[in-house]
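Notebook p. 47: complex prediction with beta-L-arabinofuranose.
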Amino acid sequence: MRVQILLIFSFVLIFSTVTAQNPIIQTYFTADPAPMVCNDTVYLYTSHDEDNTVDNFFTMYDWRCYSTTDMVNWTDHGAVASLEKDVAWVNKKNGAWAVQCIERNGKYYLYVPIHGAGISVLVADSPYGPFKEPLGKQLVDSEDLWKDIDPTVFIDDDGQAWMYWGNPSVWYVKLNEDMISYDKSIGKNGIVAVDMVPESFGKSVRKDGTPCTKYVEGPWFYKRNNLYYLIYAANGVPESIGYSTSTSPTGPWKYQGLIMERYPKLSFTNHAGIIDYKGNSYFFYHNEALPNGGGFRRSTCLEQFEYNADGTIPSIIPTEEGIKTSLENLNPYKRTEAETIAWSEGVKTESGSNGVYVTKINNGDYLKIRSVDFAKGAKKFEATATSVTGGKIEVRVDAKDGALVGVCEITNTGGADVWKTFTTNVNKVKGIHDLYFVFVGNNGELFNFDYWKFSK
Ligand code: FUB
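Predicted complex, structure tokens below:
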């Protein structure tokens, strides 16, 4: 019996290590996921919890962007905006809370809350920025420390855009077509306070016994099959995720229940984003499960789900496994950025003159790329890197210690900013595999890794 229990335990351990896909980003602590589907691609904007938390509170300086077309391999585009550089007038480094980006007529609008200083909007010609602030001041600012956070923006089929936001209540504005101003003729100078009633947001009580609704913060506003959805953090702290629906973009809202309840390894906040992509529905949230994670060091996670026939959302359980199948195979014969990653251990990414690259590579660290289609077989592998110490990339398939296909030696390139391409022959690998780059060497930080490619 004991042996059986041990065997089952080891299987669960091995199984969960091998298939872990949540959190989907391991190189940074990323929170408050805001996915955007655009140009057949999913762009994921996140807030970013610093590795070193200051004063045991949210320590958040910039917003990051990732993208995917297969929902399992995520390409890191780095920090696309920061308070210090891009919202300079606010004279504040910390407070880069939950962001959302939306595209309109080829321009990308990044709605950024500045904790304690309102909500601003930045604009770019590309989803990766550079984002510039046209107003030089907040879009909305009630001068309340908590109220103006968590903006969510949606453009309806008739072209009308709306922005909802707020803690501990929810407000909205009717955005003008320029997306950087709003109709001042409704509500209080343009700002409409939503009726916070139990029919709309569920019934709850505060710790002091006073009645309230379940709504806390983090709204996510969208429309599907003519039904409007408002998803939000609910039920006090620790937060669950709840939702309400309406047949109109401005309510009245009908409380529909909880989507994700409280589970171990979720942080005391939770914050959701929902999209449909290539015929599937996806639920983004955050947890604190990465090593050294916590309430102020959170990580973005992802689950696939199916709406019920009546449009209601089923209860979603957070898993380590996350997304089971890739939506498409990756072509290894095209240049792939090293920062396109399904899972990694030990490494970080940084941005330089050649874009984003993988860095802080030490002995034993590795990258995993899922569902790589080698077709009839690869013969050569090349990696572009910069190094002063040197090391090796072991190219393996199907597991970190899976079949060794080749070893690419990275030698001193003559300077940390000198990039060179290194090549090696590989054993003919055919068909679809998960690909692993395992880094080996004994000299501390071994090299930086920019991109790779196989050839036939
Ligand atoms: O990330 C800072 C705050 O925590 C967000 O604005 C909230 O939604 C919660 O996730």
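Notes: The chain has a mean pLDDT of 94. The domain at 336-455 is CATH 2.60.120.260 (Jelly Rolls).
Next step: compare against the earlier run before touching the bench.
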